[in-house]
Structures are given as structure tokens and as C-alpha cells.
Amino acid sequence: DVTRTTDPNPLLSQGILPTVCAYAPKSRVLVTRGRARQIASQVQLSRVSRDLAPILGFLVLALVLVSVYFGQRVRRTIEGPLRETLTALETVAGGDLSPALPAGKTDEFGRIATSLNTAIGRMRSDREQIERLAATDPLTGLMNRRAFVATLQHEVVRSRRYGLPLTMLLIDIDHFKQVNDLHGHATGDLVLARVGKLLVAQLRTTDYVARWGGEEFVAALPHVGLDGAAVAAGRLRVACGEMDVALVATTLRVTLSIGIAELARDDTPQTLTDRADHAMYAAKRQGRNRVVIDDGHLDAEAGG
Questions:
Q1: How far, CA to CA in Å, does 134 sit from each of 143, 150, 219?
Q2: Which residue in 170, 242, 264, 267 has its CB near the most CB atoms, within 10 A?
Q3: What is the DSSP string of 215-249?
Q4: How many CA atoms lie within 13 A of 163 on its CB side?
């Protein structure tokens, strides 16, 4: 019932058209040449798609694996150093200048780490210098009052914790106002600087010496009781009396009045300072150029 055409087209010779015609209903259907070619092309495309499906699947899988591999490479190369950099910057922003980024790489992150380490190092150096200047008396180079008070608080806590003695000396230059009035403030500054150097030279390296204000100095002697402090104060008084401050037309002699107080059980840093101060003023009332312990009695051996 189906009219078969004899066409030299290769599709007919390959058996494609007869297959299609075999499924045609047994009715009067005329399979034209164009329709036969269309059906044959669809069948051939279906076969090609079926053959290419495994290849396309493999390519997609390969693409996914490559993406994962390079994603991990990018993560290790960029995300890790970036996280370290952000963490270091957050730490620095919080006031801690201790972090150091791992440098040594030659890529962009290595250059960034080197630059940041250099900047953090400069900031650390500047802060240390500022802290040092804030804690130092510019004229004498000694610790200033603010720094000494903080140090004294620490030493009081340590003395109580370990049951060790702690004594304090409050030192005043006698007749310093006359030095300024008669010889000028430049000479007064020279005297202050010379006395500051003398105190550092005569006391131990473990002692703390500071300029308390004006012509007054202060010293804290850890692990030293009243007897040892009296000997040290007497040595200071004698050495200062023997020091000559040479001027253009004359030579100045400088003497010291020194008060001593030892940390008591109920003392605070302030009360310890007050008792040393009272003893120093007692030394001035008793004639200056002498050492007095906080009970107001002159220490004969130290004061002389």
C-alpha cells in the first residue's frame, strides 16, 4: 500500500528510509523525497547526540574539577594572606603594635606585608619614643613625677607580696632660690642637672631616681631598710657638698636636705611620700644639709 521510490540518495541505500517506511501505517501515504530526507536527518541527529552525550558529560566533569582546583589555588594564594593582613590591621587598630606579617614572598601580598611591617615598626618606635619622653624630665634626663608615682605603686605591691623592705628619699637642694636670684635661671638649670647626675652615680642601678618638682628630687630604694637608706642618703649629702659648680667668676657649693621614710604595714604610696616629705622639711628646719628619718629625729651618722 506504500509507494516506494527508487532514489539514488545515499539515505535510501543505507536503509534509513525503508526503516521509516516500515513504521508507516498501511494506508495511502506518499513519502515524498523532501519528507524522507527530513526524517532521515532527525534520525541521524538523534544518533549523533546519543554518541556525543558521554563526551559532553566528561567535558562538564573535567570543567568542574578544574574549577575546584583553581578555586582552591586562588583561596590559598589570596584568601589566606588577605585574612592575615586584615587580622593584623585590626590588631594594630586596637592599639597593639606587636603583630608582624609573614614577609618574604615576591608577589603583591609579599610587598604589602613588607610595607605594613615597616610601617608598624615605625609606629612602634615612635610610640616608644613618645612614652619615653612622657616619662622623662627634659632638664635632668631623670624619671619625671608621673612615671615615678607609677613605679612606686608597683614597688609597694611587690614589697608587700614578698615581705621585702622599701624606703623612700625626698631630697631638696638648699637655698636654691638664691642660686636663681643671684646667678640666673641658666645656672639654676645647671645645678639641677649636676645634682641629677650625682644621684644616679651614687645610688644603685636598681634604685629609682626622679625629679619630683622644682629643686626637689625623690628616690625609691627597693629591698633597703632604714639603716641602709640612711647610709645611702649620707653618702649623697657628702658627695654633693664636695661637688663644685664652676661659674665664670665663682664656684658654687651645693648642699642637700634629705628625708627618709620606710614603707609601713598601713602605708599607701601617698602616705609613704608624705612621711618622707615631712622628714625632709624637718631637716630644713633643723638647719639644712642633713638627713632626717620620718620620725623627725636627726640621724647623726648620716646627717653629720
A1: 9, 13, 19
A2: 170
A3: TEEEEEEET--HHHHHHHHHHHHHHHHT-EEE-SS
A4: 0
Collapsed DSSP state (helix, strand, coil) of residue 179: helix
Which residue has cell 621585702? 164
Catalogue the long-range contacts made by 157-161 (C-beta closer than 8 Å, 24 or more residues apart): 158/222, 159/222, 159/263, 160/263
What is the set of active-site residues?
215
Type and span of the H or E element at 212: strand 208-213
pLDDT tens for each residue of the chain, 304 residues long: 444 444 455 544 555 445 444 444 544 445 566 666 677 676 666 776 676 667 767 677 777 777 776 666 666 666 677 777 778 778 877 888 777 776 666 667 677 778 888 888 888 888 888 888 889 999 999 999 999 999 999 999 999 999 999 999 999 999 999 999 999 999 999 999 999 999 999 999 999 999 999 999 999 999 999 999 999 999 999 999 999 888 877 888 899 999 999 999 999 999 999 999 999 999 999 999 999 999 744 444 344 4
Q: CB-based contacts of 288: which residues, under 8 Å, 6+ apart? A: 174, 175, 255, 257
Helices of type H across the chain: 10-13, 16-22, 33-74, 80-93, 108-134, 145-162, 176-183, 185-202, 226-241, 269-285, 300-303
Side chain identity at residue 52, one-letter code: L
